[in-house]
Amino acid sequence: MYIAGLRGDTLAVAVVVLLCLSYWATGWLPDFLVSLLLMFLLATCTSLGATVVFSGFTSSAFWLVFSGAVIGMALSVTGLGERVASRLADHCGHAYGLALMGFAAIAFALGIGMPSTLGRIAILTPIVLSFCDRVGLVQGRPGRTGLMLATALASCELSTAILPANLPNLVMAGTAETVLGLRLGYGEYAVALVPTLAIVRGVVLVIVARRLFPDRLTMRGGERADASTAMNTAMRPDEKRLLGALALMLTLWLTEPWHHIAAGWVGLGVALLCLGPLRLVNPDAFLEQVKLAPLWFVAAIIGLTAAVDHAGLASALRPALARLDLAQMSTMPAFLILVALSIALTFLVTSNAAPALYTPLVPALALGAPLSVKAVLLAQTVGISTIALPYQAPPLVLAMALAGVGIRDATRYCLASAAVALLTVVPLTALWWQIAGLLHRAAP
Predict the structure, then answer these.
(1) Residue 440: beta bridge partners?
(2) Phi-psi region of 389 (alpha: psi -120 to 50; beta: other; left: phi over 0)
(3) Where are the domains of the chain?
(4) By the 8 A CB rule, do 85 and 134 touch?
(5) Contacts for 316-321 with beta carbons within 8 Å, 24 or more apart?
(6) Which residues make Cβ contacts (< 8 Å) with residue 409, sequence separation at least 6?
(7) CA distance linking residue 68 with residue 76, whole number of Å
(8) What are the φ and ψ backbone dihedral angles of 45, each rounded to 5 degrees?
């Protein structure tokens, strides 16, 4: 890396990141220990300062983990989560595969109306866990892990096919309009990406979850009758109070463009309501049950992203990337190179930051390339939606923290689904774009 031109803080951050990512990927050390090691090394081996290294603790995402734990406990204590899970069990509780497909579809559908992956995961996670308890997927069952990971990864990956559904898409669209003068339309974007990045990738997530975490639902007839009875009973006052708090939270999340209050602060406010005036969660009981390890993990991931940005690691790589010459390649190799480039960038700077590095390179990459400028731009969506390791998608880290999913299981699932996606989603995307007339450069 020194030969490649990295110096000072840039080189130190690159070494520390590679070291800690190797531990996270292999599971040789506990997650929280690697998280603390990352923050220690960045604080002592670089001059970035505490503001950058420990920025995770001031991030709204960190407090969204905390608030998600409070809201999840409130859903359990009041029985509202059980009520929702009972209704879902009526529709998806007949078979494990059906449940996987149902929650993947719900995660995608929520992306249409809720443009925050963190928000979708904060809402879905306690509902999925309640559903698992309802259908016999108790703690330790592989199906519980499979259902949680499939829902979380669907929330992250499938939303890439909806233009305003996540942060990477918004970064890409905003940068494209500024740098290229290219405005992406909602409809044309969906036509280009939904068939493969949503439908095909959703099928991949379900199939891989069934193979890696085989299980079956075990809810018996008596339990179904109890669930039906519970669902038809009137809501208790505490359920109504929680429902009102959740409605307020969703309203504030959806109206963020007007009031500019981040999702984490909204979630923290609702969590305080649950712990205080609404009397939904006992503070002492919460302190006994809360686990700090997931909070360290989230803080470390956010600090890692900030360190990469402030140390200029992405900027140091930009000159080498800009020299990538596609003019001598045919259409398919050029497309595959662009997808590989976008995947590599998600490893370096996570999926949230990758579009900010890739999109400004589009004019240089498209010069003489056998692909249309729009194809060069959109090729990155295939890469940023291919999550091979959990740290690449901060919202997935949030889901793991809320659900108590281990790094080893998450890594296995991400690697397997990414491998299958490379063999299916990537070539089918190229084929679909060719049919739609998006892939080739227009004749002069």
Answers:
(1) 371
(2) beta
(3) 8-436
(4) yes
(5) 316/5, 316/6, 316/10, 317/348, 317/357, 318/357, 318/360, 318/361, 320/4, 321/357, 321/361
(6) 145, 149, 213
(7) 12
(8) -105, 0
Q: Which amino acid is at 4?
A: A
pTM of the model: 0.74
The single-letter code of the amino acid at 272 is L
User: In whole angstroms, what is the distance from residue 72 CA to residue 403 CA?
Assistant: 10
How far apart, in whole angstroms, are the C-alpha atoms of residue 150 and residue 7?
Answer: 40
CA distance 278 to 276: 6
pLDDT tens-digit readout, 53-83: 888 888 776 787 788 778 878 877 887 777 7
Condensed to tens digits (0 to 9), the pLDDT of residues 127-155 reads 888 889 888 888 889 999 999 999 999 99
Q: Which tokens go with 154? A: 């669907």
Q: Are 32 and 23 in contact (CB under 8 A)?
A: no
State the number of CA atoms in the 13 A half-sphere of 201 facing the CB.
34
Residue of 300, 316, 302 lying closest to 8 (CA atoms): 316
Residue with tokens 């590599």: 344
How many angstroms separate the most distant Cα atoms in the chain?
A: 71
